[in-house]
Amino acid sequence: MNIDHRTIFPIGVGKALAVFLIAAACIGCGTDSSLAKTSAEDSLNQAPPIEPQVASPDAAIAFLHLVEARVNEPAPGQRMSAGYFTLMNHGTEAITLTNIVSSSADVQMHATTLETTGTTMRPLTEITIAPDSQIVFQPGGNHLMISNLPADAKSLPVTMTFDNGGSLNASFAVIPLNAWMNTAK
C-alpha cells in the first residue's frame, strides 16, 4: 500500500510536526503560562526541558485569595473582639499560615473546639491550606482574637506570614457594632 504523505499532512510534515510539538507543550503545561512560553523554534530544536526555578515566597502567595476579611467592633467597654475571613489557595501546593500580626492591635489565631464540658477556645499556631482549597475563620470555629483595637478604627492592617517565608499584607474592615449584632441573629 502506497500512502502519499501530502494527503495526510497537506501543510507539510515539518509544519505538522511543529504544530504537534507546540500543542503538546501547551497541553502538558496546564495553566502554568510561564512554561507555555517556550518558542516553536525551541520545540523544533528539541532543547532540553526548562528546569523549574525555585519560587520566591511572593510567587507562592500569588495563588492566595483573601475574601470577607473583617473585624467586629468591640462592644462598649470591651477590649476584645473577633476577626473572620476566608483564605483560598488556588495553587498546586499546600501552604501553611503561621502567624497574623498587626501594627494597630494585638492579633492571635484561635480555634473553637467542642469538649465534654462545652466549647473551648485555644490558640492556633498554624493552619494549612490544601491546594485548590480554602480555610474559613468564622463564628464558632477558627477565628482571630483581636485586642486593643483603636476605638476609631475603620480598618485593621494585618500581615499574614506563611511557612515558605512569604507574607500577605491585607486590610480587615471593622464592622460597626450595630451592623454585626443585627446580622448575628
Sum this structure up briefly.
By secondary structure, the chain is an alpha+beta fold. It has helices at residues 5-8, 13-29, 40-44, 57-61, 177-183; strands at residues 64-72, 80-89, 95-101, 106-115, 118-123, 127-129, 133-137, 143-147, 155-162, 167-175.
Q: What layout of secondary structure does this protein have?
A:
Blueprint: H1 5-8, H2 13-29, H3 40-44, H4 57-61, E1 64-72, E2 80-89, E3 95-101, E4 106-115, E5 118-123, E6 127-129, E7 133-137, E8 143-147, E9 155-162, E10 167-175, H5 177-183
Parallel strand pairs: 1-10
Antiparallel strand pairs: 1-2, 2-7, 2-8, 3-6, 3-9, 4-5, 4-8, 9-10
Overall pLDDT metric: 76
Distance between the termini: 80 Å
Q: Please name the fourth-level CATH homologous superfamily of the largest domain.
A: PCu(A)C copper chaperone
Counting DSSP H or I runs of 4 or more residues, the number of helices is: 5
- The total strand number stands at 10
What class, by secondary structure content? Answer: alpha+beta
- Stretches where pLDDT is under 50 for at least 5 consecutive residues are 1-11, 13-55
**CATH architecture grouping of the largest domain:** Sandwich
The shape is globular
Q: What count of domains describes the coordinates?
A: 2
Q: Give the H and E element order.
A: HHHHEEEEEEEEEEH
CATH topology of the largest domain: Immunoglobulin-like
Specify the helix fraction band.
10-25%
The major beta sheet can be summarized as:
10 strands, mixed
Report strand %.
35-45%
CATH class of the largest domain: Mainly Beta
Radius of gyration: 26 Å
